[in-house]
Sequence to fold (629 residues):
Amino acid sequence: MLELEDIQHFLISRPSALAARYEFLAFRRPGAGREWLKGILDKVGTAKALASGNPGTRWVTIGFTWNGLRALGVDHAALATFPEEFRQGMAARAEILGTTGANHPENWVGGLASEELHAIVILFARDVAERERCRQEHREHLLQCDGVKVLSSLDMEAIPPFTYAHEHFGYRDRLSQPVIEGIGEEPTPGSGPAIKPGEFFLGYPDEDGPPAGLPQPAILAQNGSYIAYLRIEEHVGAFRDFLRQQGDTPEQQEWVAAKLMGRWRSGAPLVLSPDKDHPELGGDMQRTNDFNYGKMDPYGYGCPLGAHIRRMNPRDTAVNMQRRKMIRRGGTYGPPLPEDKPDDGIERGIAAFVGCASLVRQFEFAMNVWTNDPNFHELGNERDPFVGTQDGTFDMTIPKRPIRKKIVGLPAFTTIRGGAYFFLPGIKALRYLTALS
Amino acid sequence: MATQAIASAKEADWTKPAAMAIPKEGYFKLQNGRYGPVYPKSPACYGFTIIAKIKAGREEVIREYGKTIEKTIAGLPEALEVLKLHYLRWVLFDIGQDTYFMYQGIFDTDFDKYTEDAVSLFSKYGLNTVFENLEGFPEDWKTNAPAFVQFVRDHQRPSFLEYGEYPYVSADEIKKALKLKAAFSGMLDLMQ
Fold:
C-alpha cells in the first residue's frame, strides 16, 4: 500500500551508514533552489531502493522549510495550506516548545534560526572516507549552482564502541521504535500495535481515519512527511562530574544514571531490572521493550515518573498513544571524550530528527506536555533531565523505599544549539518542485 | 509553561482559601500554547466555560445527554479520567427567544495541553454529538480536529474571578488524602 518508490527512505529505513554530513542551504536567487534540486534529484534515496540493497544506491535525503518552499517558487495559495506551526518555523515556537533560556533560538548557531534557512540535505556514507567524497561531490555541484549558499554544516559519525548505537553519555539508543503498518515488520513485544502510515506520511489513513486537511497541491503533499530537527550539545564532562557527586561507588553512580534515563546505560529497562543492570537484557529486542508502567510500575519505584523514557513514551499511563508516536533518526557528532579526560571544550552531541505527519500534534505535544511541563505527572518542579530546558532550578525525584531520593537543582546536561522544521517531499513532489517557475 | 499566578508548586498554599481576579483576556501575560493563549492556574485550578447558541428545537435532545452521560459514568467511572476534572456543570438558559448551552468545567490541566485527547475522548464516548446541536459547530469535526478545537476556543469565555476553598489542590491530591485518612482509620482499628 505504501508507495515505497516515491517515499524518501529517511523515516522508513536506516542505511548502514556510520557517517553523514548535514548541509543547511539558502537559495539566494529565484530559480537557484530548483537548479540545485534538479541536479541532485537522482541521488535521493527512496525506501524501495534502499530495501533492494543495491550497492550503487545513493542515500541523499532532502527537506525544505516553509521559507524554502517559497524560495523554490511554490505559490502563495499553496503555501497558505501548510500547517501553522510549519509556516512559523521552529524558532518562532520556542515558547510553546519550552526551548527558552540557554536553549532559546537567539543562541542558536549555524543559521538555523534564520529566515534564510531553506533546505537541509543529508549525505549518508558508509564511513568517514566516503562522507568526505560525498562532501566533495556536493561541493562541486554547488559550485555549478550560482545562488545556493551553505549556511552551515554538521559532520556526523558513530562513536566507539561500534557494537551498538549509543550517544556521548554512554546510553544505548534505538531500543523503542514504532513500526509502520504495512511495511512487513512486526513490532517488538511491548511496543504496541503497528501504527497507521498516515501518522508519518501524508496521503494515507491515520489512526483517526482517512487522510484529511492535507496541504495543496496533492502532488506536493502525497508521500511527504515533516521532520523536527534538533542539534543537542551534550555536556559530557558536566554529566560525569554530576554522577560522581551522586555516589561514592560506580554502582551507585550507574544507578543514578539509570534513574534519570529510565534504562541502564546498557539499555536494560528499569521496570524489568530495577536494582541491578542486566546488559544482555538491554540488547535483547524481544525483551528490552516488553514492559508497561500503569500495571508494572505505577509509583515509579523502577522507572521514576519523570525519567526520560517514561516522559517520551508514557505507554499505558496516557491515552491516545497511537496518535503520539514519532519516528526518530539521527546520530552523534563530535569526537568522543575519553572516560579519564576532563571536558575539552569541543562541541559534541546528537543531532536528532523527529518524523511525523503533524508537528503540532506529535512533536510539539511531546515537547510542551511531556518534556518541559514542570507539572508532568504532578511532579511540581521537574523537566526531562536530558531534553528538557534545565537551568539548575528544577528537581528530579527518584521514588525509593522508605524515603525517596530527591535531587534538587539538576544541572543542564545538554544545550539545544539549533533546530528547524523541514518538509520531506516524495520523489514526484521533488520533481514537481524542479518544474515550478 | 510555568504559570504566572503561582511560580511553582512549592509556593501554592492550600491551607487558606483564596480568590483571584483575572483580567478580561483571561491571562495576566500572554503565553502561547499550541492552539492559542494559555490561561493561568487559579485557586480554582484550571477550567473553561463554553457558551454557544443551540440549534432551534434541540433543547430536549441536549437534555437527554444528561442521562446518557450519567449512564456512561455509572458503567465506566474512569471514562473522563484523562480530562482531570474536578467538576462539570452543563446549563441551558434563554436569552430572549434563543436558548444557549453553557459547558463549565473545572480541571487540573491546562486545556491547551489535552485538547486532542479531549476531542478523541468525546468521540469515544459520544459526547461530541452534544456539540453537533450547537450553532456553528463544524460538520466535518470527525476528520477535522483543528476545527473542533477552534470552535471550543471561539466559544470559550474566561472567568474574571475565581475562588478556591483549598486553593490549587488537584483532584488526585484530594483522593490521595482521603485514601490515607481511610487507611489510618483502619490501622488505628487494628491497633485496638
